[in-house]
Amino acid sequence: MREVVVLGAGLHRFGRFPDKSLQDLGREAIKNALDDSGVPFPDIQVAYVGRVLAGMGAGLSVVSEMGQTGIPVINIEMACGSSTSAFREAYLNVANGVYDTALVVGFEKMQRGMLQISEGTSFQSVMGLAVMPAAYALQAQRYMADYGATPEMFAQVSVKSHKAGALNPYAQYQKETTLEEVMASRMIADPITLLQCSPTTDGASAVVICAADKAAKYAAKRQMTVAGWATGSGRYERKGEGKGEGEADAETGAGEVERLAHQAYERAGIGPEDVDVTQVHDAFSPGEIFMAEGLGLVPKGEGARAVWEGRTEINGDIPINTDGGLISRGHPIGATGAAMVTEIFRQLTGEAGPRQVKGGKAKVGLIHNAGIGGVNILVFKR
Questions:
Q1: Is residue 118 part of a domain?
Q2: Total-model pTM
Q3: Are 58 and 156 members of one domain?
Q4: Rounded to 5 degrees, what are φ and ψ at 104?
Q5: What's the total number of domains in the chain?
Q6: Residue 348 pLDDT class (50, 70, 90 cuts)
Q7: The pLDDT of residue 246
Q8: 218 lies in some domain
Q9: Most buried of the four, 73, 112, 259, 265, by CB within 10 Å?
Q10: What pLDDT does 241 receive?
Q11: pLDDT given for residue 219 in this prediction
């Protein structure tokens, strides 16, 4: 397989834009990514598009804003993991020589309120397991009982995320909040309050990738390499068959993430101790804590304490969600994954501005992005 590099990335600011169409959002993100990469649109050989709520053919209608060059435009839907799934498929096809260049796009326009995450007659819905705040809250209650964590520790994730989001001009929420404000906000699913939930959002993201041996022809002055990946969904294990018992959820449960992270680290030739900056799927505040442990960034049971002690902040030793994450940057589900790639690209190329970690010397970045159908873990190197 060929080495594959990211040459450019771009966003449309996340937020609420009732007067803008999907085409408006996507066109801006794609143009920003192409300009960033130095790759002209006619050189793009394929586009993979992550989108969820936009309806049939949405990928083609957005990508065609840049022109009609006859390329295949492939729509991918995996809920919140759609555009990292699109990225993975683009990467694999470039790595295997099917294409030399590819465009990855994610976009969404969302209504306010809770999302229906599974079909109404599914066992998850019938058993009341399809309400994501409750799923995270139940895991958080068990975590507090097992490890002595407090509700304030989960709330601190939101405080940290809003602090980072205030430094991100593309974030939906660019205002810091206090621990007292987070704790006092409306209770959603104990211990998760409103300010610990990711919002529904409009937004778009785009990434340009290229075979490394073809990248020199473009004007991009920096790049990062796709070093490793893993993807998979939860699995059921009977008692005694594995580490877990019952259904292992790949979004809220760290066990499946641990398995996938091991695969990604092995492919990248690194360990968790080598990771300089991380993006995780914090749809709700406990997610950052669970995933820090599942990814091996901290030992099991120490994730909440790591957040409380400031270790996951921009200036901490294991910075996580430096752009504000889903909680502050926003969560337009189709666009979230490629936005994570964008932030890691900015960090590893030293272009994150006031959000820059480790003096601009970060060399390894990691992404964890969960969706209905599985989790994607991506590892990048400078």
A1: no
A2: 0.93
A3: no
A4: -110, 130
A5: 2
A6: very high
A7: 42
A8: yes
A9: 265
A10: 57
A11: 77
Same domain, 261 and 338: yes
- Shared domain for 131 and 280, answered yes or no, is yes
- For residue 316 the two structure tokens come to 């901490």
Q: Which residues of 244-272 are buried (b: 16+ CB within 10 A; e: fewer)?
A: beeebbbbbbbbbbbbbbbebbeebebeb
Q: Which residue, among 326, 345, 18, has the nearest Cα to 173 in the 3D structure?
A: 326
Cα dist from 313 to 26, 259, 320, whole Å: 30, 26, 7
Are 276 and 130 in the same domain?
A: yes
Same domain, yes or no, for 183 and 208? no
User: Residue 4 and residue 190: Cα distance in Å, rounded?
Assistant: 44
- Please count the CA atoms within 13 angstroms of the CA of 124 that sit on its side-chain side: 14
Domain contains 117: no
User: Which amino acid type is present at position 331?
Assistant: H
CATH code, 30: 3.40.47.10
Percent of the chain with pLDDT over 70: 90
Catalytic residues: 80, 331
Q: Is the same domain home to 187 and 269?
A: yes
Looking at the fold, whether 28 and 136 belong to one and the same domain comes out as no
280 exposure class (CB count in 10 Å sphere: 0-12, 13-18, 19+): buried
Host domain of residue 85: 4-112+201-224
Give the mean model confidence (pLDDT) for residues 290-298. 97
The dihedral over CA atoms of 30, 33, 35, 36, expressed in degrees to the nearest 10, equals 170
Q: What would the mean pLDDT of 85-107 be, rounded to a whole number?
A: 98
Q: Is 128 within a domain? A: yes
pLDDT(35) > 80: yes
CA dihedral 187, 189, 192, 197 (to 10 degrees): -90
| pLDDT tens profile 226-265 | 999 999 987 766 655 555 444 455 455 557 899 999 999 9
